[in-house]
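Q: What does the assembly look like in three dimensions?
Context provided by user:
Components: two
Sequences:
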Amino acid sequence: MNAEIITIGDEILLGQIVDTNSAWIAQYLGQADIAIRFITSISDRREDISKALLEASSRSDFVIVTGGLGPTKDDVTKETISQFFESPFVRNQQVLDHVKQIFLRIGRGEMPISNYTQADVLECAQVLFNDVGTAPGMWVERDSRCFVFLPGVPFEMKFLMEKHIMPRLMAMRSQVRVYHSHILTAGLGESFLAEQIADIEASLPHYIKLAYLPKIGLVRLRLSATGTDANLLRTDTENFAERISERLKEYVVAKEDISFEEAIIKNFGEANLKIAFAESCTGGTISSNLTKYKGASKVFDCGIVAYANHIKQEVLGVNKNTLDEFGAVSEQTVVEMAKGVQRISGAEYAVATSGIAGPSGGTLEKPVGTVWIAVAGKNETVTKKFQFNNNRQINIERSAMQALLLLWNLYVKESI
Amino acid sequence: MNAEIITIGDEILLGQIVDTNSAWIAQYLGQADIAIRFITSISDRREDISKALLEASSRSDFVIVTGGLGPTKDDVTKETISQFFESPFVRNQQVLDHVKQIFLRIGRGEMPISNYTQADVLECAQVLFNDVGTAPGMWVERDSRCFVFLPGVPFEMKFLMEKHIMPRLMAMRSQVRVYHSHILTAGLGESFLAEQIADIEASLPHYIKLAYLPKIGLVRLRLSATGTDANLLRTDTENFAERISERLKEYVVAKEDISFEEAIIKNFGEANLKIAFAESCTGGTISSNLTKYKGASKVFDCGIVAYANHIKQEVLGVNKNTLDEFGAVSEQTVVEMAKGVQRISGAEYAVATSGIAGPSGGTLEKPVGTVWIAVAGKNETVTKKFQFNNNRQINIERSAMQALLLLWNLYVKESI
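A: Here is the predicted structure of the complete assembly.
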């Protein structure tokens, strides 16, 4: 089945929002072995919407369209698709009752007229009832193709995908299966990894593809097999994954499709070890990155965001002399921060960051992008200085990532 | 100028990464009045790449292609474009020296053979030298159209855009100007806002478009004017923006294109007020969201991520009896957490969260998604209970957002 996604909304083409819906949909459909082949983002212009639908219907069996279904005038999708499918609107009473109900619950009095039109659906469509919002989804079948129209609000889109779309897809899916196997590595660049496994890569059968997905300090390897025999695909892919893992042993963090943070939660959790964070320049980002994932509470009790020097002293117990003599951005300070939060939390491992995230605050000696990181472990404390660049958000993101890499390395060293 | 973006990489179509490059490029080009009309994501398949290039050359003057330029075998973009433009490769000595230099610096010995090919560029292209990575960019002109090929690694792409692409574009840009004006509102849904300003919206001239961009608790209004007289566009748009702001006064958070967090930093900063956070279920996300933005240090000194109960007691001073009697997820606990971090930090405002983010940990009385938030202000402490759903990351994101909305409301109330 050839599937594609069309996202509609000026805000995407202006770069005001990042299209996270498409990645979610792609991943979600991947579970049903449906591969997305194209993702197109277009503006709220009638002609672009018509053109994109026409193109999609020439190459895809299944087309998911998100966005543009709101009640305000800038949302022109519905009128455009009414013309495209040559299908008039009918007002759906169940949807109308539901929309009225929502407005009643908010208790703001009379419902705006524009919301009545949200109950208007294409005559040719099956209505996908939206329990969690006002805009219903629509499912249109035309010339043995399926078009699905969903609101762009992420949780409404996800609700409709889970409740209505997936069950229908499971019923129609074809015999072609895709099997993925993942290996997450840390500490070696992609071309070096490729060299180490060149012979294995060369021996892959034509139906298994190997991809390298690098990300600050990490490379994810993905083996993807396509075919009809699910068992064979799994066995073959897992065999190759095992050979690669064995070869790259010292760099392997996880043998499944999980994030670095999840791998840390898993490993520390199994070893009954806790981690604490004392963050200055990363401002809570390391804590936030870790607690995004379930099971975080098994390894994490406490984070202190000590943004100001007086908090570094009063809460973390950093010595005033240390701050005066070496400054907040120094090896000495991050070591005391790490040991401070280790003491407060009782955690075996503690990570501390202090740096100049920018865009201002730099000096000749410590320019913007200077970051010190310390990790206090069971026996040892390690530190590292980084010199990043001028972009605040990138500096924070890379510092948070490097801090976890340092933590991982010390953990591996102390676990041998 | 019609511009479009093509992003290449299986990882995008599998939903393994979110394409943030496109939003960045769109926003960045917007500064030069260049509007992106299409964003297409395709996989690393030769036929899809050729097809996308062909389509783009039929409708756009300027095409930016990112990704697929890495040294490993899964990256087929270069070979495909060599065929597409019927242009052979030439090895660029300057690029080769640079790539070798990078490997020398890493100090891992001999450079892998695959990296030599990174110095191979299309004969018909102008080379965009990449100071910060190994894959050079390429600029190809063909039939009065421009094609630009950039690596997919975000900071390399950004470097090339800033250093090479923008200067060239500024030199070629046309006379058409686009002017945007933004109003950020909190506390009223988009259809209610639309009703309140219906007469103003109806009176907009044809060259000004109004868009509503809703996001949990917030709606951003964007007026976009297109024309040739930059002064006229600015004056007209700003006049309408002013009329709308005046009408919606009580809901307006900012009259510029900034995030809610930036508006908070600006307002609290100007009022010389500090904010502190005591986070449980949000796990540092509120601190992280705020400190993402420059100037955060003017309003923020201290955040405590008190994930475990013993940290709530020992660090924040929450009463053991409170935890025993009402539980960690309770109004009483979040109030004590907020007051605790207010005392520790000396901040005028303190925000506390405690809830069950999920996916496990719920009970009949307090199901997954139950979240208590407290804001302690100068005179008053307010609390609110939320019942979100089953998705951990969405629960965290919404809790963090609602916490700042509560903070904002109390601030507005106490500032009158």
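Follow-up: The domain at 271-415 of chain B is CATH 3.90.950.20 (Maf protein).
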